[in-house]
Amino acid sequence: MATWLAHMRVAEFFMNRDSQLNCIDFLVGNVAPDFGVPDKDNVKIFTPTKNITHWHTDGEIDAEGFKSKYIQKNGTESPFYLGYYLHLLTDIAFAKYYRKVTEDISTDVDLKRKVTQDYINQDFIFLKNNPNSVFYTMFSKIKKFDNNYLDFFSEDAFTQRIQHTTNYYLAERTHATSEISAKYKVDLDLFVNDITKFLHETFNT
Running DSSP on this structure, what letter comes out for residue 171? Predict the structure, then answer.
């Protein structure tokens, strides 16, 4: 799945182009599917599970199912729900991109781990080079965001995970580098450019 910051970058693209989306609700919605709260005894177990937060049907993300229930059915264009929907579409695209890049190394666990670490490092390189990123100007300043949208998350889940995400990205990562060979590089700049172009064209047709 795409990184938290990649989702924020997608959100920022639209926030810069539509004043109605230039708000905290839209930004948080773009990251919210990743806000399951980890179990205290096993950090690999989340509540709710990814199957729920990412609207899985038969093992695949059903973005249109989410849209049907929370956007079309309610006749709402809530920035939060729109952001959540964009997150699901972005993850679908990222999964396809990641599989394409790593198809030749599907059984090479060590190399795939390096690929993943490389694109994680790209987040920190981006933040270092972009001090006016929406992460700094808006996301990191959120102190509280009650869940008034989705009953499968707890009321304070978003506040908890926003704080966790903020602390994660504010941690000092001066050592972060992106040095993997171009053949196996999951290029987040390229991906964000491509997905935002696709989404922008899709919603303007």
Answer: S
Q: Quick one: average pLDDT of 40-56?
A: 93
* β-strands 46-47, 37-38 pairing: antiparallel
b/e 102-141 (16+ beta carbons within 10 angstroms → b): beeeeeeeebbeebeebbbbbbbebbeeeeebbbeebbbe
Q: Over the stretch 138-156, which tens digit does the pLDDT of each residue have?
A: 999 999 999 999 999 999 9
d(CA 50, CA 48): 7
**Phi-psi group of 58: left, alpha or beta (phi > 0 → left; psi -120 to 50 → alpha; rest → beta):** left
Q: Looking at residue 173, what is its pLDDT?
A: 73
Distance CA 131, CA 28 (A): 19
User: Regarding beta strands 60-61 and 56-57, do their DSSP bridges make them parallel or antiparallel, or are they unpaired?
Assistant: antiparallel
Q: Single out the residue of 116, 168, 153 nearest to residue 35, CA to CA.
A: 153
DSSP H or E run through 166: helix 157-170
Residue 123, both tokens: 């987040």
How many angstroms separate the Cα of 92 from the Cα of each of 2, 73, 78, 88? Answer: 9, 22, 22, 6
For the chain, the maximum distance between any two Cα atoms, rounded to a whole number of angstroms, is: 48
Backbone conformation region of residue 55, classed left if phi is above 0, alpha if psi is from -120 to 50, else beta: left
Please calculate the CA angle 13-37-45 and round it to the nearest 5 degrees: 115
- The model's pLDDT over 87-115, given as tens digits with 9 standing for 90+, comes to 999 999 999 999 999 998 878 889 989 99
Q: Which pTM does this prediction carry?
A: 0.94
